[in-house]
Amino acid sequence: MNFLAHVYLSRHDEELMVGQMLGDFLERGWRDRLPPRVVEGVNLHHKVDRFTDTHDVFARSRKRLGDELRLYAGVLVDIFYDHFLAQSWARYHPAQPLPEFSAEVYATLERHSGSLTGRFLRVFPSMRAHDLAGRVRPAPKSSTASCSASAAV
């Protein structure tokens, strides 16, 4: 669910970006149907997920959400982390504004549509329409709510 972080880590490598986006939408036999560099992107996606999912900071963030959200905590923390990345976007990616980067992601996915899985193709129109890669926008400078939320997670 942390689409923004995954595509950011692709460093503008289109096939890695496609693989990173497909990481949560794979189907049986996917490895044989994808170009080798897209497979590398899927593998990178899984490495990133393993790293974050087993990191102490991520575990503390999940725990802060409480028992009532335990089943959804991992996904929620992924979404929160994407939000925090978006809030600090200019710090990590000063050469390209987030809306422009997000549009580039969708254009890349369109160019590589032949590599997209059926599961991904079913969600892609909605993902693009709701801008899930760039859905989180930086908070206004005067917002204290986002500061306290980032400190909590």
Q: Classify the helix fraction into a percent range.
A: 55-70%
Instruction: Please state the average pLDDT score.
Output: 88
Number of helices: 10
Rg (C-alpha, Å): 16 Å
Shape label: globular
Strand tally, please?
Answer: 0
Q: Could you describe the largest sheet, including whether it forms a barrel?
A: none
User: Any low-confidence stretches, pLDDT <50, length ≥5?
Assistant: 144-148
Order of helices and strands: HHHHHHHHHH
Structural class of the helices, strands and pairings? Answer: mainly alpha
Summarize the helices and strands and which ones pair or pack.
Blueprint lengths: L2 H6 L5 H9 L7 H4 L2 H18 L2 H9 L8 H15 L1 H4 L5 H14 L6 H12 L15 H8 L1
Q: How would you sum up this structure, described in words?
A:
The chain is mainly α and 153 residues long. It is 65% helix and 0% strand. The protein starts with a helix and ends with a helix. Mean pLDDT is 88; it is low at 144-148.
Care to give the gist of this entry?
This protein is mainly α and 153 residues long.
